[in-house]
Automatic annotation (TrEMBL):
Pfam families: DUF6114
Residue ranges crossing the lipid bilayer per the database entry: 28-45, 57-79, 86-105
Keywords: Membrane, Transmembrane, Transmembrane helix
UniProt source species: Streptomyces cyaneofuscatus
Name recorded for this polypeptide: DUF6114 domain-containing protein
Region of interest (Disordered), residue spans: 149-189
InterPro entries associated with the record: DUF6114 (IPR046096)
């Protein structure tokens, strides 16, 4: 190998970073991350104990099981957005609905933090669309155009007519067999 080749000296972190960037670009990554981040405080706060000096504050309520279910479902929907991006719209709608349900059930939606994160994640999931694959420049120039993208380079004029002279144009429905004009963008001949 020559010293100019970059393959042998490439660092592993760069390789993993490129792979992660390609993986992240093919799915609603941020939607899944926000949805999972919204599910964690919704599920955590009803079971959390806060210590202020010698005083223990328990935030557990009667809706602890409902909060746990909503939080686990939001984390599951976030993972679904990552690994099954084909159902991203369903997962986004479900995340928004669970975020709205968490307001009365789970301590005001995980003290509004989990509610907002899940709401943003669901909205991002609904609005995400897969990008077009990047095409090679050479393939773009060599590929023929489809019929709907083909454009005539100049307007067809009967033989013998000079460019720029006043030649009456035929309507699209007329067909003149002598001139070869068929009314469309195709030329007879």
């Amino acid at each position: 190998m020559s010293p100019e080749s970059t393959g042998q000296n490439e660092h592993h972190i760069r390789v993993y970073r490129r792979r992660f960037r390609a993986w992240r670009g093919n799915r609603p990554f941020w939607a899944g991350l926000f949805t999972m981040a919204g599910g964690i405080p919704i599920a955590y706060f009803p079971y959390a104990n806060m210590h202020l000096g010698n005083v223990t504050l328990a935030m557990s309520t009667t809706a602890g099981a409902g909060s746990l279910i909503i939080g686990v479902l939001l984390v599951t929907l976030g993972l679904t957005m990552w690994f099954h991006s084909i159902v991203r719209v369903f997962a986004g709608v479900a995340a928004i609905l669970l975020a709205l349900i968490s307001i009365p059930v789970a301590n005001i939606g995980g003290f509004v933090v989990g509610f907002l994160l899940a709401l943003i994640g669901g909205a991002l999931s609904i609005s995400w669309a897969p990008g077009e694959p990047a095409a090679d420049e050479a393939a773009l120039h060599d590929a023929p155009l489809s019929l709907d993208k083909q454009r005539p380079e100049r307007e067809y004029a009967p033989e013998g007519a000079l460019h720029g002279s006043a030649v009456p144009q035929q309507s699209a429905g007329d067909h003149d067999a002598a001139s070869g004009y068929d009314g469309g963008t195709h030329r007879a001949g």
